[in-house]
Design brief:
Number of helices: 10
Structural class: alpha/beta
Largest sheet: 8 strands, mixed
Strand content: 15-25%
Radius of gyration: 20 Å
Distance between the termini: 44 Å
Order of helices and strands: EHEEEEHEEHEEHEHEHHHEHH
Oligomer: single chain
Helix content: 25-40%
Number of strands: 12
Shape: globular
């Protein structure tokens, strides 16, 4: 049988409107057939689900071999009110539970279940420690979210629904003209750029292309499963990143660091996303054979900015 006649494996993706989902189609559509779960379907390969009411279009699962679970409310979208905290948690855990219960009802099994998590699972207090996957989890809200998020993914393995379960602890994804990098460069271009708080907080990151390549790696390497840090090898502080972006954009940084108390007044508890960070090691996934295309922040900035 020629390659053109082979049936492409079907991958079901949650988080249809996110930049990772869009990039997956751009990079991997020659090798995989993609479907998406979304609140409002607008194309034939999109299928609707309603997480709070536990409703889902079961046609989305026909012939599916792999699921990539990226859905979850944006943690930096708004202040962390009690309602928003509940939404951040439920959008991750209840969505995974709905998928799991649907697969069980359909008597279906998967080859692969890939779930996002985040490096927020680690302690974010100022430290020179470089965290690996085996390190103790933190105790703040983000660590709680990530711990429960990962447990919901692990249930696919525990209940023998998925042969392989891969959990990817993401750093900040850097992409061209969107996401965190867009927000940072927009401020610097206006001449208002400055480091946040002390500026010493670590910034764990990964280039969007490497993120997609890592997902492809997880889909194709049958012996790879477990939990992996999805961050580039280089560590950089908020202050260093701000200076590098300003240099690339040929802008000067006139303003002093934005004080922590100002960010806390504006964003409340959510300011911790901006004021804390940690050094995280990708050595475990590198040992499995994955090679980062963008190993340093300079390489990423040169490509994206």
């Amino acid at each position: 049988m020629t390659d053109s006649l082979k049936t492409k494996p079907i991958v079901l993706v949650t988080g249809a409107n996110g930049m990772v989902a869009k990039k997956l189609v751009e990079f991997l559509s020659d090798s995989y057939s993609f479907r998406f779960l979304t609140r409002k379907a607008t194309s034939p390969n999109q299928f609707e689900w309603d997480i709070p009411n536990k409703k889902i279009d079961v046609k989305a699962f026909e012939g599916v071999q792999h699921i990539i679970h990226l859905a979850g409310a944006n943690i930096s979208d708004r202040r962390w009110t009690k309602k928003q905290k509940t939404n951040i948690l439920s959008s991750r855990i209840e969505s995974a539970q709905l998928i799991l219960s649907t697969l069980k009802a359909l008597n279906m099994n998967l080859d692969t279940f890939i779930s996002a998590s985040a490096v927020g699972i680690y302690d974010s207090k100022p430290s020179e420690k470089v965290f690996s996957e085996e390190d103790t989890k933190g105790s703040d809200f983000l660590a709680e979210v990530c711990t429960k998020w990962e447990a919901s993914a692990q249930s696919f393995k525990n209940e023998q629904i998925a042969k392989n379960v891969i959990i990817l602890r993401l750093g900040v994804i850097l992409a061209k003209n969107e996401g965190a990098l867009l927000k940072l460069t927009a401020v610097i271009k206006k001449g208002l750029g400055s480091a946040l708080g002390t500026g010493k907080q670590q910034f764990s990151w990964i280039h969007l292309e490497d993120m997609v390549r890592l997902i492809e790696f997880s889909l194709t390497k049958e012996n790879v499963q477990g939990t992996f840090n999805a961050v580039a090898p280089e560590h950089i502080s908020n202050e260093e990143l701000t200076k590098k972006l300003a240099h690339k954009l040929k802008k000067k940084l006139f303003l002093p660091n934005l004080p922590s108390f100002v960010l806390k007044l504006i964003f409340g508890e959510m300011a911790s996303v901006l004021l804390t960070g940690n050094k995280v090691s990708p050595n475990k996934i590198i040992a499995e054979g994955f090679t980062f295309k963008y190993k340093t922040i300079d390489e990423a900035i040169d490509d994206l900015v």
